[in-house]
Amino acid sequence: MSERGGGGRSGAAPLRVALLGCGVVGSQVVRLLRGQAGDLGARVGAPLQLAGVAVRRPRRHQDVPADLLTTDAHGLVERSDVDIVIEVIGGLEPARTLLLAAMKTGKSVVTANKALLAEDGAALHAAARESGVDLYYEASVAGAIPLLRPLRESLAGDRISRVMGIVNGTTNYILSRMDETGASFGEALEEATALGYAEADPTSDVDGFDAAAKGAILAGLAFHTRVTASHVHREGIGEVTAADVASARAIGCTVKLLAICDRVVAAGGAESVGVRVHPAMIPRSHPLAGVGDAFNAVFVEGEAAGQLMFYGRGAGGAPTASAVLGDLVAVARNRLAGVRGAGESAYADLRVRPIGETPTRYHISLDVADRPGVLATVALAFADHGVSISTVRQEGRGEDATLVLVTHTAPDAALAATVDDLRRLDVVREIASVLRVEGGGG
Ligand SMILES: NC(=O)c1ccc[n+]([C@@H]2O[C@H](COP(=O)([O-])OP(=O)(O)OC[C@H]3O[C@@H](n4cnc5c(N)ncnc54)[C@H](OP(=O)(O)O)[C@@H]3O)[C@@H](O)[C@H]2O)c1
After folding, report:
1. What is the pLDDT of residues 2-17, one digit of tens each?
2. Which of the chain's termini has less CB crowding within 10 Å, N or C?
3. Ligand 1: does its nearest atom lie under 6 Å from the Cβ of 55?
4. Distance between Cα 396 and ligand 1 center (Å)
5. How far is it, in rounded angstroms, from Cα 279 to Cα 64?
6. Which helix (H) or strand (E) holds 245?
C-alpha cells in the first residue's frame, strides 16, 4: 500500500481507501497494507491508496502519517475521492451512521463489526443493495478463519443443516484451563485477564453476547434467512463450576461454550431455525473438543458436503486484519470490474424457533438420599415430561450418593421442566450440575 501512489503494476487509477479506527485491528490493517503494497496492488489490478484514517485521539497514532489522520470520520466517509471504507471502530454508533453514509455516497464497505451486523444487518444490506456497492464482513466472525465467504459462496449450492462452533476465544481459554487444571471459573478468568485474553470488563465474552452476535450472522448466512442477536438464546459460562467440568470428564466429555445454529424440518414439513449459545458437554472424541487455548473452530454440516471444520485464530490484531485485507482485495477487484459481489440472501425467511422447542439433551447430576425407591421417584419426574433417560449411574453411598443421568433428545422446555420438578423432590438434596450435551448421538 502506498499512501501517495504506486503499489500496482497496471496503469489503472488508484483505489482510495478510508480507514475508520486504528486500534488493535486497524493498526494491523495499516501495517499490512503498507508492508504488502506491491503485492496487493498487483492482486487487485490497481494501486490501493490510503486516503485517511479516522481516530478519536490522533496523538496516539504516531506511526500513521499525520496528514492522513483525522477526527472527522463523517467528513472522511463522504469525501468524493474515497472508493472503499474499512470500519474497525466497533459498537453500534457512530459505526452504523458512518457505514450508511459511506454506502449512500457510493463507497463499498468492509467491516469487522459483529455487534452492528447482528443488530442491524438488514438495514446495512439494504443500503448496499440500493447503492449497488459491496458490504463484506469476513472478520466479524472467527477472526482470521475464512468462514463467511465459504458459507456465502463455496457452500451456496448445498443445504446446510447445522453450524456448531467455538467462536469466542476468551471463554474457550477459560474453559480449557478449567478442564486442564481443575481451576474454578474465577481462577481461570483471573489468569485469562492477566494474559490479556480477557478484557477488563469481560461481560461481552463471558455472558455470551459476543458469541450470540456471531451465531446470528452464521445462521443468517447458512440458512438464507434473517436472524438478529435478539433471536439468539444466550447463556454464558459464569455458572460453569469445577464440578461441572469434573462431571464432564467422568463421562468422557469436555465443556465448551458453543454457538449452535440448526435447521429443523417438523413432521408437517415446516422448517425453522434455532440459534443458541450456551456451555455444553461434548465428547472428547468430537473435533471441537480438541480446540484449546483461545482458538476458534466451526463445524459445518452440509447435506451434500457432509462434515467440514474450520479452525484457526478467532481474534487478535494481525489475524483479524488478514480477514479485513482479504475483503478489501475482493471489493477492490469487484469495483475495478464494475460488479458487486454476492449480496444478502434471506429468501428462505424461516421462523426462528424458541429454545423451548429446540431438541437438546441434558446431563444432570443429583445429590440424592440413598434409600430404596429413589431411582423410581427420579425416573418418574422424567417420564412425566416425556423425557427418556439414556444412561443412569450411581456414584457413592449414603450421604454421598450422586445420581448421574444423561437424557435422550427432547424439547428443551420438557428438559427444563423436568429439572424444576427434580428440585422439588424430597429425595433430591441438591442438583449438583445441569449441562446440555452436544455432539453425540440422540
Ligand atoms: N480485537 C480483535 O481481536 C477483534 C477480532 C474480531 C473482530 N474485531 C472487531 O473489530 C472492530 C475493532 O476492534 P478493535 O479491537 O480494533 O477496537 P479498538 O482497539 O478499541 O479500536 C477502536 C478504534 O476506533 C477508534 N474510534 C473509536 N471511536 C471513534 C470515533 N467516534 N471516530 C473515529 N474513531 C473512533 C479508536 O480511536 P483511538 O485509538 O484514537 O481511541 C480506535 O483506534 C470491532 O468491531 C471488533 O468487534 C476485533
Report:
1. 443 444 445 789 999 9
2. C
3. yes
4. 52
5. 42
6. helix 242-250
